[in-house]
Inverse folding.
């Protein structure tokens, strides 16, 4: 049997996990810490309440339940492979539901970004491309770049391998997680990640703030 691209792509994964009430666990747990880290990154990047934020691969709204109270009502949008996971986060985690219409949660398996407004200012994809082969990043980046003419910054995370030789084997990242060249969680080479961002029309930098599980941050500015 072929292995699914990621655990998320295994048949019945979301139905089983949601039936067991595991909407926090399946986005990686560490709920408070990881939501806060994402919010701090966005605030440092210049996110203001009047901006419109797109949370790509938003899961159960670990970021959303912090960003929605900060942003003006309905200035948050979310996409994910699983609409059911986002809706569970909405129902279980969002304190004030009057601040976000549920039709801002868009199921999107292919990063084609349908159903979203054009006037997105900031986008975040946290711990999403860490679970996907590089081809998904290479598909998503040009879509993000062309779809949102007002975009100021895209932030996303990856796991990196230090060089091509080490990239061929499993690697232990600083926070202990083991990443792989050919299965989730995936690591990539910095030069491949930067080449993909540049090819899509972004000027990008990789940095190394403290991020859960040893992820690296890519900050991409449209150019
Ligand atoms: C580790 S979780 C992170 C969720 C969220 N960004 C957060 O930090 O809480 C990875 C998320 O990526 C989503 N995902 C996986 N493959 C995807 C795809 N092809 N398109 C969109 N979302 C995807 C999963 O459903 C899951 O919610």
């Amino acid at each position: 049997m072929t292995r699914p691209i990621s655990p998320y792509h295994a048949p019945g994964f979301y139905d089983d996990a949601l039936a067991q009430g595991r909407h926090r666990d399946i986005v990686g747990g560490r709920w408070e810490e990881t939501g806060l880290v994402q919010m701090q990154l966005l605030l440092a990047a210049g996110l203001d309440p009047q901006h419109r934020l797109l949370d790509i691969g938003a899961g159960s709204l670990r970021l959303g339940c912090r960003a929605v109270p900060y942003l003006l009502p309905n200035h948050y949008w979310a996409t994910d492979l699983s609409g059911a996971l986002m809706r569970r986060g909405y129902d279980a985690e969002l304190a004030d539901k009057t601040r976000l219409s549920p039709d801002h949660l868009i199921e999107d398996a292919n990063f084609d970004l349908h159903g979203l407004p054009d006037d997105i200012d900031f986008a975040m994809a946290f711990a999403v491309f860490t679970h996907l082969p590089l081809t998904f990043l290479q598909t998503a980046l040009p879509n993000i770049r062309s779809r949102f003419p007002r975009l100021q910054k895209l932030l996303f995370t990856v796991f990196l391998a230090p060089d091509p030789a080490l990239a061929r084997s499993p690697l232990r990242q600083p926070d202990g997680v083991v990443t792989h060249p050919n299965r989730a969680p995936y690591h990539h080479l910095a030069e491949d990640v930067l080449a993909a961002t540049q090819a899509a029309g972004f000027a990008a930098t990789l940095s190394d703030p403290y991020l859960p599980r040893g992820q690296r941050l890519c900050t991409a500015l449209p150019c």
The pocket of S-adenosylmethionine is lined by residues 6, 8, 27-28, 34, 57-59, 62-63, 80-82, 85, 108-109, 111, 126-128, 131-132 (CB under 6 Å). The two ends are 43 Å apart (CA to CA).
